[in-house]
From TrEMBL:
It comes from the Bacteria. Residues 553-586 are annotated as: Disordered. It is an enzyme of class 2 (transferase). The keyword Magnesium does not apply. Keywords: Acyltransferase, Cytoplasm, Transferase. GO terms for cellular component: cytoplasm. It comes from Massilia aurea. This is Polyhydroxyalkanoate synthase. Its EC number is 2.3.1.-. PANTHER family: POLY(3-HYDROXYALKANOATE) POLYMERASE SUBUNIT PHAC (PTHR36837), POLY-3-HYDROXYBUTYRATE SYNTHASE (PTHR36837:SF5). GO terms for biological process: poly-hydroxybutyrate biosynthetic process. It is found in: Cytoplasm.
Length: 586
């Protein structure tokens, strides 16, 4: 194989950046960067054309010159090191394999890519815009940088080339087969999907469906203790994903854990909407979903109050439902637990790149009067938030190297997408994310009544994940200021390690990761997230026992576990996990 002359390659590479005119295309690129790919602009156009002008932005010439000089200095040093036989330092895990260091040209390619990426992000940061516009610009530049990685292409990936040689081309054939299979699916395979089946080895905690309507099925789980707390627990998962993230395999099932702690547990299993439900609104999910579930549980158990649990948007629905009931003069919650939930949308994390008036208006134009937001589009959007982990990693492994993805229950669940009714989705985007009305007392009317989160009268447990990019932990902490405003000691906040999902699904039995808690009370109770974290204590292991303790403290007396599920008015109709969770969006 004829290899290019490294010295000629380097000379051409360095000369193009020492010429000031060569930087002009980069500047042009910054003003025509592709917008967020999952949410195209109106009219089918997707570039951020005129971004700098429309945002009233500018670029400091002196700063750009400094970036250029720094780049040239580092590029020159890189080439000198290569000529002296010194292997470039590659700290990025994408280039951790020995093959990248074993070939000088590959090492140089990876190092120069990382240097270019550093320079491009510095240029993005040099643009003088507001925080929201800067976040969008950085996101777009990062998307392009990640896509340009030499690890993503067979011609520049020495690991994939070595695999092809060792397998005599079989890896390439298998990779093409994997790619064609995924093209038929319309998504990248992230897990061995033949390894799991809902109800067999995920979502298989024993129980019965005791109620259903067109929106959800209600599962009552079989007790595993002789006695249970009299106050039942009602779990409301996100409708954007299926409930069994809370009931994966037995060893990491949060459902199984709370059942074993002596609770009578009910789960809302949302229906995966089809065209017949494309008219449903946020009010329907609150009235016919969360409120209906609470009413049925009260009738089955004979208890006026229940522990109310909400995860992610399920927590937003749960809190909204309790605010509606408070406006109607009812307080059915013995406690409220919110996991990685937004009530104050001031800081919506990286999802803010998809939320502005133009993009929300486009969705409303297409979906507000009816229609479905496809689960596949939602999955693509969430994957774009972590493209190296959820997109390019699988391009490299599945397609370039011809490997099969391993069996991973969490990623199997992640690929099991759900649709959303268009009117519900659009109302949620505008009123929550864009206009942030939920936190304002009386600003929203839901199910016919103005709502106020501060009117909910119940002890509150709020959980945030330290590395959550969807619900920043500081945004989860903001719920502490909205709930029980006259009785802040009724609120408890716990911070877990890791991200939006992995932080939540952290089984107590495995004793992994850590969490932070702060038990200061009275006048010394921290009022801000920064003050809270500064005086919080870190504890090794899972946060689950902290939550179990909270539930027990508010769970009332104990009595014999019910011998059968449901009641005469709500008899069991089918075993858990039920039919609704089996319906796939694709």
């Amino acid at each position: 194989m004829n290899m290019p002359d490294p010295q000629a390659l380097a000379a051409a590479w360095l000369s193009q950046w020492s010429d000031p005119a060569a930087w002009q295309p980069w500047m042009t690129m910054m003003s025509t960067m592709p917008a967020m790919p999952a949410m195209p602009a109106p009219g089918g156009a997707s570039p951020l054309a005129g971004f700098l002008k429309d945002a009233g932005a500018g670029i400091d010439t002196a700063r750009m010159e400094a970036i250029r000089d720094d780049y040239l200095k580092k590029a020159t040093q890189l080439w000198q090191d290569v000529m002296l036989g010194k292997t470039p330092e590659l700290s990025d895990r994408r280039f951790a394999a020995a093959e990248w260091r074993g070939n000088p040209l590959s090492a140089f390619s990876a190092a120069s890519y990382l240097l270019n990426a550093e320079c491009m992000m510095a240029m993005a940061d040099a643009v003088e815009v507001g925080p929201r516009e800067r976040q969008k610009l950085r996101f777009s530049v990062q998307q392009m940088i990640d896509a340009m990685s030499p690890a993503n292409f067979l011609a520049t990936n020495p690991e994939a080339q070595q695999q092809m040689i060792e397998t005599q081309g079989e890896s390439l054939t298998k990779g093409l087969t994997n790619m064609l299979t995924d093209l038929q699916k319309g998504r990248i395979s992230q897990s061995d999907e033949t390894a799991f089946e809902v109800g067999r080895n995920v979502g298989n905690t024993a129980g019965q469906v005791v109620f259903e309507n067109d929106l959800f099925q209600l599962i009552q789980y079989t007790p595993t203790t002789a006695n249970v707390h009299t106050v039942p627990l009602v779990m409301i998962p996100p409708c954007i994903n299926k409930f069994y993230i809370l009931d994966l395999q037995p060893e990491n099932s949060l459902v199984r854990y709370v059942v074993e702690q002596g609770h009578t547990v009910f789960m809302v299993s949302w229906r995966n909407p089809d065209r017949s439900q494309s008219h449903l609104r946020w009010d329907d999910y609150v009235e016919d979903g969360a409120i209906r579930a609470l009413d049925v549980v009260a009738q089955i158990t004979g208890q006026e109050k229940a522990h109310v649990f909400g995860f992610c948007v399920g927590g937003t629905i749960a809190a909204t439902a309790l605010a509606v009931l408070a406006a109607r003069g009812r307080q059915p919650a013995a406690s409220l637990s919110l996991l990685t939930t937004l009530l104050d949308f001031s800081d919506a994390g990286v999802l803010e790149v998809f939320i502005d008036e133009t993009q929300v208006a486009l969705r409303e134009q297409k979906l507000a009067a009816g229609g479905l937001m496809p689960g596949r589009d939602l999955a693509t959007t969430f994957s774009s938030l972590r493209p190296n982990d959820l997109v390019w990693n699988y391009v490299q492994q599945n397609y370039l190297k011809g490997k099969e993805p391993p069996a991973f229950d969490l990623l199997y669940w992640n690929a099991d997408s759900t649709n959303l009714p268009g009117p519900m989705f659009c109302w949620y985007l505008r009123n929550m994310y864009l206009e942030n009305k939920l936190k304002q007392p009386g600003a929203l009317t839901v199910c016919g009544v103005p709502i106020n989160l501060g009117a909910i009268d119940a002890p509150v447990f709020v959980y945030g994940s330290k590395e959550d990019h969807i619900v920043p932990w500081t945004a989860a902490f903001a719920s502490m200021q909205l709930l029980n405003p006259g009785n802040p000691k009724a609120n408890r906040f716990v911070l877990g390690a890791s991200g939006h999902i992995a932080g939540v699904i952290n089984p107590a039995s495995k004793n992994k990761r850590s969490y932070w808690a702060n038990d200061k009370g009275g006048k010394s109770r921290p009022k801000t997230d920064a003050a809270w974290f500064e005086s919080a204590a870190e504890h090794k292991g899972s946060w689950w026992p902290e939550w179990a303790k909270f539930l027990a403290e508010n769970g009332g007396a104990q009595g014999p576990a019910p011998g059968v599920a449901g009641s005469s008015d709500y008899p069991p109709t089918e075993p858990a996990p039920g039919r609704y969770v089996q319906v796939r969006a694709d």
